[in-house]
Amino acid sequence: MKIKDLNGKILKGTHLSPKTEFKKGMVPWNKGKKGVQISSKKGKSYNEIYGDKSKEILNKMSISHIGKIQSKELIQKRIESRKGYKHSKETLRKIGLSNKGKTVSLETRKKISISQTRDKIFKGFKLSLNQKERRSKKYKKWRTKVFERDNYTCWRCKSKGYLEAHHWFSFAKYPQLRFNVDNGITLCEECHAYYDDTKKRFMKLQSNSKDTVRACFRRKPASSLRV
Asked: Is 182 contained in some domain?
């Protein structure tokens, strides 16, 4: 049965969904109501709305999307529409609580990998450039040199326990300074967490001056450090 004409328009009188379409004798859900109507389903989960049938419905939705590939234009539009959007603190708190204690299965990780690499089959996990460099011999040598220069002592609390090498200028944002020894400082795990939490404080200075950033931490700038 044809439902579209040569121009691709739906033919008049075509019944696309006989089971769910509005039929004669049915009473509209908003009959007699005035003003803007808010759906009773708003803000509710599938489990709250459909009960025991929720899993079956979600499974049908998942199957219907198998094999569908979104166009680059549509993906770009979605990215542009979300640009600059930030979750509220309350939303972030809820997301954190909902994910607490959850672990991603190996099967799910493989599916995520396939979707990101666009491979037809799983060909193994691939590391990003940042991850590869952090695991490289060059990075390990840089870290050792930083530890040796600081005599294996935390710069902030002077402890000699478990130590980490911290980048003054971000590892991700300043790739040219990743392996510059003057861009590193030795910190214990607790002090490293302290500086990570307050990183925005000195990054907001929006200055590439090593003197300004180092002064923020009351430490003399290294003459060889260049940004």
From this structure: yes
Long-range contacts of 160-167 (CB under 8 A, 24+ apart): 161/188, 161/189, 162/188, 162/189, 163/187, 163/188, 164/188, 164/189, 164/192, 166/192, 166/195
pLDDT tens readout for residues 55-71: 888 888 888 888 888 88
Residues 99 and 146: their CA atoms lie apart, in Å, by 36
Q: 148 lies in a domain?
A: yes
pTM (two decimals): 0.41
Distance set, CA 128 to CA 104, 125, 133, 135 (Å): 19, 10, 9, 11
CB proximity list for 210: less than 8 A, separation 6 or greater: 168, 221, 222, 225, 226, 227
Number of domains in the chain: 1
Contacts of 211 (CB under 8 A, 6+ apart): 221
- DSSP type of residue 175: G
Give per-residue pLDDT as tens, 19-60: 778 888 888 878 888 888 777 777 788 888 888 888 888 888
Q: Show Cβ contacts of residue 122 under 8 Å, excluding neighbours closer than 6 positions.
A: 110, 113, 114
AA letter at 47: N
Domain residues for the domain of 158 are 131-216
CA 223 to chain centre: 37
